[in-house]
From TrEMBL:
GO terms for molecular function: hydrolase activity. Keywords: Hydrolase. PANTHER family: GAMMA-GLUTAMYLTRANSPEPTIDASE (AFU_ORTHOLOGUE AFUA_4G13580). Gene3D superfamilies: 1.10.246.130, 3.60.20.40. It comes from the Bacteria. InterPro entries: GGT-like_enzyme, GGT_lsub, GGT_ssub_C, Ntn_hydrolases_N. The keyword Hydrolase applies. This is Gamma-glutamyltranspeptidase / glutathione hydrolase. Residues 524-536 have a biased composition (Polar residues). Residues 517-536 are annotated as: Disordered.
């Protein structure tokens, strides 16, 4: 991408960061610096991504942890590789078993929604295939932060306190005591600026590093997870952990106005962003701050979500292919439904046939788009005692309706919200991008791509621009900085507009673009959190 946005009128509060030798962009300054330090010690962008991700489990535990899932898009030697390190449901779980326990839908907390964690396996797989340094060196910054402690940052402190207050009311059983012992050791959450450490977290990270994650899936850590699950009547077992392997997958894409936008294939929801962009590319959208532009963006996203929620699940269980959902025929069919008024979205019929995000780049041309999560903040509310392992609650997204595409089954991967993005042009890397935050993620991806491609905004401005998000039906939330006159005009088109005073629900993004002519990197980070770009 040429740097044709340098003199563009769109501006932002922060300035885009430029560097040549390396760059790490993520939501926490200590984690970004950890990744850059590893790069300076001889590591590449992949090593830096692993170091940053591991550090984030320590310095931003409100959004991710060792017991969550991960996805990555990795650009190495002119080729894009995809890694799906999301885990399946336990082999002995079933709809009947859940209903026998008195549940009509999958619960949010506790051991029932816990699926096999994929994060440690992702670190090991990335390191083995593309890394230059051993995991014992790459995970050392995270181990030191867990062991020696660090001061809690502002956004982190806010979410930590909110989670504590919620868990105190909702998570009252014995199985939750490990969470309070780990994350509220003094009977309260740590204050902003206060030091927090976790010896258990440090020892777990050390075991993962020394065994290339074998301890987590087939060793001492696996035994601890299994024993705790058995003690509290959970479903996950040592056999589930031992059987797990992450999957290398072929990324999927659509061409949007000359740029290829890449996502991980299902079970991830990146397909939703691609379907929306595939619909939108059929419209002329030359002006960003236009009622027509926002209206078409919103309508396209609503339709894409309706299709995504109907069809996306474990790829082995999908009744409709990615090719069908990204076909020009289907895009035209959905595009034809977008008129002048807001509609309530319904799924179409295709033609037959809590999260942290980080981006890294190095001087060799390697680039990584990486995302990991425990889901819904801290996840299930369950921490295996003495380990710092907070287990994810990803199984909450399963349906207990046996006719639903995403119905719960043993050993099945659920619809997954976390998605890394990547942009290329004419076969060359432009760079990694992402916006974390539940169902905001594909909406953030589409908005960032359009801000970049359609409206020529620099990385920081593309992230800082006011965001909107579709919630349900005709309900749209907009940030308080969203243009009021456009919000009023959208309301006249039938959109139910809600202005949010808190920007915490509009996602947190990172971008790194590379200039193909000079190799210069330009990065943007999220102003809605404690975001940071560490550069060299």
């Amino acid at each position: 991408m040429k740097m044709d946005y340098l003199n563009h009128p769109y501006s932002s509060q922060r300035m885009t960061t430029f560097a040549k030798n390396g760059m790490v962009a993520t939501s926490q300054p200590l984690a970004a610096q950890a990744g850059l330090d590893i790069m300076k010690k001889g590591g590449n962008a992949i090593d830096a991504a692993i170091a940053t991700a591991a550090a984030l489990t320590v310095v931003e535990p409100t959004s991710n942890g060792i017991g969550g899932d991960a996805f990555a898009l990795v650009w190495v030697k002119g080729e894009l590789h995809g890694l799906n390190s999301s885990g399946p449901s336990p082999k002995n779980i079933s709809i009947e078993a859940i209903k026998e326990r008195g549940h009509e839908s999958m619960p949010k907390f506790g051991l029932i929604p816990v699926t096999v964690p994929g994060i440690p396996a992702a670190w090991a797989a990335l390191s083995k295939r593309f890394g230059k340094l051993p995991l014992t060196e790459v995970l050392q910054p995270a181990i030191e932060y867990a062991e020696k402690g660090y001061p809690v940052s502002p956004t982190l402190g806010k979410f930590w306190k909110g989670a504590y207050n919620a868990y105190k009311k909702l998570c009252t059983g014995d199985e939750y005591q490990g969470w309070f012992d780990t994350f509220a050791p003094d009977g309260r959450p740590p204050e902003i600026g206060e030091m927090w450490s976790s010896e258990g977290h440090a020892s777990t990270l050390r075991a993962i590093a020394e065994t290339n994650a074998e301890s987590f899936y087939r060793g001492e850590l696996a035994e601890k997870i299994s024993a705790f699950s058995k003690e509290h009547n959970g479903f996950i077992t040592a056999e589930d952990l031992a059987a797990y392997e992450p999957e290398w997958v072929d990324p999927i894409s659509v061409n949007y106005r000359g740029y290829d936008v890449w996502e991980i294939p299902p079970n991830g929801q990146g397909l939703v962003a691609l379907m929306a962009l595939n619909t939108l590319k059929g419209f002329e959208l030359n002006e960003k701050e236009s009622v027509d532009t926002y209206h078409k963006q919103i309508e396209a996203m609503k339709l894409a979500f309706a299709d995504g929620k109907k069809y996306i699940t474990d790829p082995k269980e999908m009744s409709t292919s990615v090719a069908q959902l990204l076909s020009e025929e289907f895009a035209e069919q959905r595009r034809s439904l977008i008129g002048d008024e807001a509609v309530t979205p319904e799924p179409g019929t295709p033609p037959s046939g809590g999260t942290v995000y980080l981006a890294t780049a190095d001087s060799e041309g390697n680039m990584v788009s990486f995302i990991q999560s425990n889901y819904m903040g801290f996840g299930s509310g369950v921490v295996v005692p003495g380990t710092g392992i907070g287990l994810q609650n990803r199984g909450h997204d399963f349906s207990l309706d046996p006719t639903h595409e995403n119905a719960l089954k043993p050993g099945k991967k659920t619809y997954h919200t976390i998605i890394p993005g990547f942009l290329t042009k004419d076969g060359e890397a432009v760079g990694p991008f992402g916006v974390m935050g539940g169902y905001m993620q594909p909406q953030g991806h589409a908005q960032v791509v359009m801000n970049t491609v359609d409206f020529h905004m620099n990385p920081q401005a593309a992230l800082d621009a006011a965001r909107w998000q579709w919630v349900e039906g005709k309900k749209i939330q907009v940030e308080h900085s969203f243009p009021q006159h456009i919000a009023q005009a959208l309301a006249r088109k039938g959109h139910q507009i809600e202005v949010s005073l808190d920007s915490g629900g509009f996602g947190r993004g990172q971008i790194i673009w590379r200039n193909p002519e000079t190799g210069v990197l330009s990065g943007g980070t999220e102003s809605r959190t404690d975001g940071s770009v560490a550069s060299w």
